[in-house]
Amino acid sequence: MSSKSIETRYYEGCGRIGPIRCIFLSEFHPVAGPKIVCQFPEDNVSKDVFHSISAYIIPKPQFILKCTMTINSLGHKIIGYPIRIENTRYERNMYIFNLCFVCDSWSKTVQYEPVVKKLGEYLVLMEEETGFVSKGSSRLPTLLAHLFHDLNTYHRATLAEGDTAVRLLVGRPRASPPPVHDHDVPVPVLRAAPPSPPPTPTSSDEPHLEPDADWDLTTAQLLPHIDGYNHVSKIAADADVEKTLVKSCIRNLLYYGVVRLVPVLKFSNTYRATPALSRFFRDPELQAACLAYAAPTAPRQTALRDVGRMLCSLQQGSPLRGVCERWAGLAPDVDVRRLVIFAQLHGLIRCIKRYPLWRGSEGPGAPGGPGGTAADLRRLFTGALCEDEICCRARLDLPSLRRIVDEDPDVAVVWR
C-alpha cells in the first residue's frame, strides 16, 4: 500500500500505531545554530523540514523544562526530550541537544515518550562523563541504527557504552480512558494498585496525591484536591481551575492509571454485591489490602469477619445509611467510606443509581437557572441522566431534587 493511500486512510487520533521512521540527534551549534548531527536512515528529515521546525526541536534555554515534546508538522510526528547542560567547558557555557524519534503523522506515539526521556537522560550521563554527544562520537551513527532496528523489530533495546548500560522497552499503549463527567469522583490508586493506606491509622487521614515535579502546573494544582470524595465540579471550584481543564487533566491521570472513577459517595446511595465478591473470601492478598485501607487498626480476624458481613449486607433496597446504623456499634474500627470505595475499585460492589424519567404529555420546560423549578428540570429527566449528574448540571442539592421528583406524579424513577 502506498504512503499516499495510507495517509488518506489514517489520520491523527485514529489510534493506529506506526513504526519509527527515523531517529535523529540535533544540537545547537554555537556558530551554525540548530542542526542535525546525525540521523538514521539518512535524509529522512530534510534540511528544509528541520529548518521549519527547529525552534521547537531546539527551543530557547528558558523553555527547556525536562519534559517530552511532540510536534506534528509537514507529514512528520516528532517526539523529543530537549536537554540543556550548563558548564563552562562549552563555548556558550551551555550545551543544548535533543534526540528525537520520527513517526508517521497519524501514528500514536505516547508509548515512545518514556523511551525518549530515558534515552535523553542516558545521553546526559554519557556527555557529562566523556563528552559523548558534543564531541561527535563516531559511535553515534551505529547507536542510532541499533536503536532503530531493535525498537522497531523487538520493541526493546539495550545500549552499552563503556561501563554504562541502559535497557529500553516500548510499552503497550493503553486504551483511551472514558469521558470524565462533572459528577465523577477520581480516586487515587497509583497505577491501578490498591489505594495506599494512610501514613498513620487515624480517621482524619484521607488518600490523596502529592504534587510532583514531573506533573504539569495545572495537574499539580489539582492533586491536593483529589482525595476520593470530591467530584469533578467541586475539584474545579476548590482549585479555581476551569472545569474543562480539570476534566482533561483527570482523563490524563486515568490514562496513566493514577486515578480511577467512582460515583459520588452518599449515605443515601444503594449498593449491591457483584459476583466478584466471592473472590474477596478466597484471596488473602485482596483481604490484606482491604483491611490495610479500611480497617488498619482492627484485629485481622475480627475485621475480616465484619468487613465480609458488611459487604454482603449491601443490597438493593437498603441504603448505605441503614447498613452504617446497623454496624456502627458492631464494627467501630471499619471506615465504611473507605470500604465502599475499595470495594467499588475492585468490582466487589456497584452503585445502583436513580434515573428520573419524565412521562408527562406536555413538552419539557425551558432550562432555568440554578435551583430551577420542576418545569425547568424536566428537560433533564430523560432517563439517561442519573441524579448526581442532574444535580451538577442544575447546581441543585440532592434533597431538593428528590423532593421535586417525589412531588411530580409524571416523573418515574428508574434504578440501574
Automatic annotation (TrEMBL):
Belongs to the NPR2 family. Residues 174-212 are annotated as: Disordered. GO terms for biological process: cellular response to amino acid starvation; negative regulation of TORC1 signaling; positive regulation of autophagy. InterPro entries: NPR2-like. One of its GO terms (cellular component) is vacuolar membrane. GO terms for molecular function: GTPase activator activity. This is Nitrogen permease regulator 2-like protein.
